[in-house]
Design a protein that fits this description.
By secondary structure, the chain is mainly α. The protein has one domain (3-189, 232-258). The chain is built from 13 helices and no strands. It has helices at 3-27, 41-70, 76-83, 87-111, 113-123, 138-154, 159-175, 194-200, 216-221, 244-249, 255-264, 269-280, 290-293. Helix 4 crosses helix 5 and helix 4 runs antiparallel to helix 6. The chain binds zinc ion (2 copies).
């Protein structure tokens, strides 16, 4: 794709996102006082432009490399049998398989110190909306997109089955970050709503709700959390960079420098304990009891 087509595609995608999500945010706001041009919107726009103009190409290269490397790992008889199943069954299997992989992959991002370095970029957003959904380190995006799609590719699900689901999952991932609170009624048991993902972005590294399209895995594994109000605030308890370039570079810095930077700020004892635990256990924190956490509800937000 030449640069003109790339710029045009980026502009059209941005227009699509504004036209689809901004009216929803105005009609059903989760935080009614939040403006379109809220603090750090320019930073999040930089992340969006970085994704469209720089990193999507890298992502396709990585996916192509991984899928070529793993071709033939699964016997041809198995992949042929997978592709021969009815379409409805294939779609159901792809949803469950992808959700299972991304759920556990996401929990690892919150437990393993090295993965958290990159994933914490996404969690540093203090205002959630459709634009903040794009705040991700490119290596974090490669990790997540690979986990979501590669197992289904390798097992032989045809691209026709996957294409629609990939597109739906991409749009849904943006929707759950939007500043929207729109009750789904009975569908809330099978579709993850923004209210669930907003609690995932509460200032707690172990906040639960690791699934995005479907909350089934959170319900199964005890990490589902859905208070009847919005979190008071979003973001991290540690200092964060102020520029896009800073966010790109900080996770790549040596571990000691990274920790020193954390501890120079106002890091609470619980966060320090979590970091120490990650070090002592080779990068994996202790398990968390979500039944206890679900009962400790913060006060009602003044903004809702
Ligand atoms: Zn997360
Ligand atoms: Zn998120």
């Amino acid at each position: 794709m030449d640069i003109t087509s790339l710029l045009l595609a980026t502009g059209l995608s941005l227009l699509f996102l504004v036209v689809v999500f901004r009216p929803l945010e105005l009609a059903f706001p989760a935080k009614p006082n939040q403006r379109l041009f809220r603090p750090r919107w320019l930073l999040d726009l930089s992340f969006l432009l970085g994704q469209y103009l720089l990193w999507n190409g890298l992502l396709f290269l990585c996916l192509g490399y991984f899928s070529r490397s793993l071709t033939g790992v699964v016997p041809r008889e198995f992949t042929s049998a997978v592709a021969a199943q009815p379409l409805w069954l294939q779609i159901l299997e792809v949803i469950l398989l992808s959700d299972f992989c991304v759920y556990w992959g996401h929990r690892l991002q919150h437990r393993v110190g090295f993965l958290w370095r990159f994933h914490s970029v996404h969690h540093s957003a203090e205002h959630l909306d459709w634009l903040a959904a794009h705040r991700e380190h490119p290596l974090d995006t490669v990790y997540t997109v690979t986990l979501i799609n590669l197992p289904a590719f390798v097992l032989g699900f045809p691209l026709e089955t996957l294409a629609g689901f990939i597109a739906f999952r991409g749009v849904w991932a943006i929707y759950i970050h939007s500043n929207v609170r729109l009750p789904l009624g009975p569908l809330h048991a099978i579709l993850g709503a923004p209210e669930l993902h907003h609690w995932h972005h509460a200032k707690d590294r172990d906040a639960g709700n690791y699934g995005n399209v479907c909350p089934l895995m959170d319900l199964l594994f005890g990490t589902y959390r859905c208070p009847d109000h919005e979190p008071e605030s979003f973001g991290l308890n540690t200092p964060t960079p102020t520029t896009w370039l800073g966010y790109m570079v900080q996770p790549l810095l040596p571990r000691l420098r990274h920790h020193a930077a954390d501890r120079s700020g106002e890091q609470p004892e619980a966060e320090l304990q979590s970091e120490r635990s990650a070090t002592l256990t080779g990068g994996v924190d202790e398990p968390v009891d979500y039944r206890v956490r679900a009962d400790t509800r913060p006060k009602q937000s003044a903004a809702t």
